[in-house]
Amino acid sequence: MLLNLNIIDLAIVKSLDLDLKKGMSVLTGETGAGKSILLTALGLALGNRADSGYVRPGSKRAEINLDFDLSDAPLAKQWLQDNDLDDEQQCLIRRIVNQDGGSKAYINNRPATLNSLKQLSGLLVEIHGQHAHLTLLEADQQRHLLDIFANNQKLVDTLNKAYQAWKETNTELNTLIKASSDQTEREELIRFQLEELQQLGLDNYDYPALSEEHNKLAHLGQILIEGQSQLDMLYENEHQSVNQILNQSVTAFSHLAQFSPDLNEINEMLTVAQIQVEEASHQLRHFLESQETDPQRLSWLENQIGVIQDISRKHQTTPEQIPELASNLEKELNNISHSSERIEELTLNSAERLKKYQSLSLKLSDNRSKNAKKLETSISAMIKELGMPQGNFLVDLAHQSNETPKANGNDKIEFLISANPGLPAKPLAKVASGGELSRISLAIQVTTSTDKTTPTMIFDEVDSGIGGSIAEIVGQKLRSLSNSRQVLCVTHLPQVASQAHQHLFVKKEQSETTASTVNELSTHKRIEETARMLGGINITKNTLAHAQEMLESNNN
After folding, report:
1. What is the pLDDT of residues 313-352, one digit of tens each?
2. In whole angstroms, what is the distance from residue 439 CA to residue 446 CA?
3. Binning pLDDT at 50, 70 and 90, where does residue 477 land?
4. In what order do the strands lie in the sheet with 411-418?
5. Which DSSP category does 55 fall into?
6. What are 125's strand-pairing partners?
7. How many other β-carbons are positioned within 10 Å of the β-carbon of residue 263?
8. What SS3 state is found at 348?
9. Sequence-ordered list of residues with C-beta below 8 angstroms from that of 276, at least 6 positions apart, any chain
10. Are strands 486-490 and 456-460 parallel, antiparallel or unpaired?
11. pLDDT of 192-210, one tens digit each?
12. What pLDDT, on the 0 to 100 scale, is given for residue 279?
């Protein structure tokens, strides 16, 4: 469960440190007080996209810290262990958003990617937004909710692995079948290209060595002339060579060292220099004597390099990559040559994997069908409680066994509603009004949530458009959820707020700058806030008495 929410310099929140408790907590306050910014902070900390607009004006950065107790979150604990991020029973999540919109995330004080943050957050918190009823109209969301209720996730994951295996095999098979129709023409082209490349002697192909040898032979005349000039200067000029000059210096310093031993070190250095000049000269002489001009070799190198460069341009590659090109062409030729064998092999594999997929798909469909009836009964009963006494909820499920395999199975699933007796059930979008859809959405969320393992659930004004006795039932349903998990609810309804174990009040304060604060209300303050929610601006003694009665009856 979420133990603490800490916010620094986020939008209109300068500093907030909020401790949360077990059970059901509600957030209330005037419209615009800043309730939504708390959910924004939670969303950012759990991996939502950030931008510079979240940073409080005048601040360098915004920071959100979440502290979770993992005693009721075994899946999150296991994820942390698998990713080497575990820290006993607690989990600390930190998100920093800078002025430039950049952000950093940390899990247990270790840097983390947003993808990792989202994976972990899905095991810790589930947020139901104000417009959850709109996503309820999507077919994939309806399928997902049924699978949650039926505890189908492991089976869905297994089926999707089988689907991916079939898809990969089938894609390769179709590619080979398509390629086989014109493989003869392609095979002839590849054989021609390989023969052309093999003329370059690919077994001993070394373009950098060829280029280096060509460069040397092309400039050999310059090398010999300049080399001989340097040899004369270094050693062979009897009158003014470097060796002669060093020899004279060594002789002079040997004589002077008799009078000043400090000069011995200089003399030794000059002696070493003379030896190195002599050795360098001998090596240079040997190099020059070993060089021979070879016009025929130079001509062959120029021709070979020209051929290589022409072929490189033709294949849109570099001379150095020609061996790799040849290797790829050989592989493709081998694939074409053996394509009939491979097509036969893939055909068998595809059939086997399709059979496995269909078996899993049928098993999943049977499980969905059984649980669809239970879901119909549960939601129908709940929407009757929520002010639709004639309402009936149905799940239309059709298994399309002859369809091409798809992710998540071959079932077509659609939620239907009959709001009035004698009328046929129709899709939600065609029957339910906005208020009815909100109630149906809430009924589905509450019903399916009992089968989830997420320890913390957040409801953001999912009770909008509801009032009176129905609102009280909504509050009771949310409170019943909190028996097995932590529930945080943003609400404007006193009937819902009065059901909470913890009441948090959001208030906007203005001095030099605007800032929102959140405080846990005492029993007395809860009565006043509940009365405000009941009576608006003018709060009478009767309103206060009504508020007190609501709180006492709901918390006994």
Report:
1. 888 888 888 888 888 888 878 777 777 788 889 999 999 9
2. 11
3. confident
4. 392-399, 411-418, 426-427
5. B
6. 456
7. 16
8. helix
9. none
10. parallel
11. 888 888 878 777 788 888 8
12. 94
